[in-house]
Amino acid sequence: MDDLQQLSGLAVLGLFLLFFGVSLYISLRISKKRENADGYMTGGGRIGFGISAASMTATWIWAASMYASATSGFQFGLSGPIHYGLWGALMILLIYPFGRRIRQVAPRAHTIAEVMFARHGRSSQLMLAGSNVLGSIISLTSNLIAGGALIDMLSPFTFTQGIVAIGAGVLLYTLWAGFRASVLTDFVQVVFMLGAVVIIIPVVFYAAGGPALFETGAHHLTPQQQDFFSSDAFFNQGAPYIAAVLAYAIGNQTIAQRLFAVREDLIKKTFVTATVGYGATIIGIGMLGVIALYAGISPVGGDVNNLIPQMAATYLPPALLALFFIMIIGSLSSTADADLTALASIVMADIYGQNIAGKARANPRTMVLVGRITMIVAITAGIFFAGSQLNILDLLVFVGALWGALVFPVIASFYWNRVTNAAFSIAVVSALAVFLPVRFEWIDLSGGLGIASDILSTIGIGVVLGLMAFGFFGMRAALIVGGIATVAAAPVSIGFLHQYPVLSGSLVAYAVSTIVCIAITLVSDQRFDFALIKERTGDFDPEDEAGARVEAGDSDVDSPDSDGRDPVKAAHP
User: Fold this and answer.
1) Where is the composition biased (Basic and acidic residues) (predicted)?
2) Phi/psi zone of residue 362: left (φ > 0), alpha (ψ -120 to 50 degrees), beta?
3) Are residues 389 and 498 in the same domain?
């Protein structure tokens, strides 16, 4: 590390003060003497297009995704970042068809778990809330690991000093105004990130050798790494991530929070814009890993989390190194503050608001206090777990697979009026009971168990593709796509897929949760009135949110869709 460039301690402190000082100033400008509980969680549900699209883009272009994309490029070659960025972008795109239905039945909700409480009851709510607490803590930890690696590599400060400083900075500005602080600072952060990527990637590429590098460095690659259609990359990176993206789209509270915050008629426009921004940026940043692979660079200390800062320290001049530093700090802050506000909203709405006080008796001031205490506890836990320096890519794939157990029961609960609380809960628990031993190879999958796992995985392929088709094209297309995918995959996948436990674990979770949920639902003759969800969810704080909406970027909060229709009803007649 002695031959790598570093920023001086004074320069790092100056950049920290500049970045977090501006973020804190924005937060203080929009904070209120009496903070509105609903505004603290979702900004009042009427945020405009520009802020919403920027926030969704910045939240998902996080430091961990940058590092994971570069890791994928380093491990699998050019196809690695393509798989990572393309399927991650698809995840954002999948939100809007399901999102419009969710907002139709629960226009003033704050969390998906809160809606599950209204739809089913406490057990379903706590399963979804619990999985999101785990997911957000892991996400927060991943971002702090990325930040710590950056500080350790590019400055005289240590990894531990870096994660503490970043955690404190993010907490400082997010604590005051909650979600509104998160989305408004996201706008500033995404401008820095996109601008930095456009400049930094070409500079590193040409400094490392330019186009000639693909010839001079080709001997560093294995045949699989040289193959754009690498089966190694597909089965170890692409396929597991395809399975994971649907779970992230449905189960992740940081996404759901922005879904409940954006104006209903702007959902499609917002998430399509974020899809393009995310995909282009993450594929671009992943090329740093590909460049490192061709250049024959080994990560410092054998830790792939060091790869991106190492490339910057090797090839960038001091001015661009400072710009790179701000880019990474901005990307990790944009998601870390989203994780904090997601955790705060879960504890505020699902734990305190619904299960402790009860919706009718919940005190809005107490809710805000609970949210702030949650943020302090969460950042402390994130700093503690970040000390383990786990592999970021492994963490992301694990969380996505874990959420796979929830996807079908959650989606079915918004469309099928026969799904019961028992069907939801038993399906999720059953899927987890199968997922964990397959994912972590606790059982020997040779012989009959391997065949059984492959059959379930094959059904899981049909479920994943069928649900994607359902979101965009409806039930008939879903059944056709799911059926064809299952039949077409069976000859190849049965007897083969159990060799890839990461992929198999995710697919069996989808399959088992779907089979169990459908089986138990068909036994029941109950019918649910979806209109009850709107009655059972809504604002906790009656204070007028108009001012907060304008501050959050929605100066025309009551304007109809351009053709005068209700876009939600038009999409789901």
Assistant:
1) 562-573
2) beta
3) no
User: Mapping DSSP to helix (H, G, I), strand (E, B) and coil, where does residue 338 land?
Assistant: helix
The answer to whether residues 197 and 260 belong to one domain is yes
Residue 358 shares a structural domain with residue 506? no
Partner residues linked to 262 by β-bridges? 47
Cα–Cα distance between 180 and 49 in angstroms, integer? Answer: 14
Same domain, 127 and 221: yes
Indicate if the pLDDT at residue 562 is higher than 60.
no
Does residue 389 surpass a pLDDT of 70? Answer: no
Helix (H, G, I), strand (E, B) or coil at 84: helix
What is the spatial distance between Cα 340 and Cα 65, in angstroms, rounded to a whole number?
18
Q: Which residues contact 424 (CB under 8 A, 6 or more apart)?
A: 116, 120, 123, 124, 127, 409, 413, 517
Cα(282)–Cα(60) distance, rounded to whole angstroms?
9
Residue 556 counted as domain residue: no
pLDDT over 50 (residue 549): no
Q: At what angle do helices 318-345 and 49-60 cross, to 10 degrees?
A: 100
Q: Both 314 and 247 in a single domain?
A: yes
Residues 6+ apart with CB under 8 A from 272: 93, 96
Residue 146 covered by a domain: yes
Asked whether residue 137 is domain-assigned, the answer is yes
Collapse the DSSP code of 262 into the 3-class scheme (helix H, G, I; strand E, B; otherwise coil) and give the result: strand
Q: How confident is the model at residue 165 (pLDDT cuts 50, 70, 90)?
A: very high
The sign of the torsion formed by the CA atoms of 534, 540, 542, 547 equals negative
Q: Is residue 115 part of a domain?
A: yes
What is the DSSP track for 95-150?
HHHHHHHHHHH-TT-S-HHHHHHHHT-HHHHHHHHHHHHHHHHHHHHHHHHHHHHH
Are 236 and 244 a contacting pair, CB within 8 Å? no
- The domain of 511 spans 419-525
Structure-token pair, residue 41: 């969680």
* One domain, residues 395 and 457: no
Point out which residues pair with 47 in neighbouring strands: 262
Give me the number of domains the chain comprises.
2
Burial class (CB in 10 A: 0-12, 13-18, 19+), 272: middle
CA distance 105 to 247: 20
Tokens of 571: 């999409």
| Closest listed residue to residue 124, CA positions, set 418, 419, 345, 424 | 424
Structure tokens at 527: 């019918």
Q: What CATH number is associated with residue 388?
A: 1.20.1730.10
pLDDT at residue 525 greater than cutoff 80: yes
Query: pLDDT tens digits, residue range 455-477?
Result: 999 999 999 999 999 989 999 99
Q: Against a cut of 0.85, is the pTM above it?
A: no
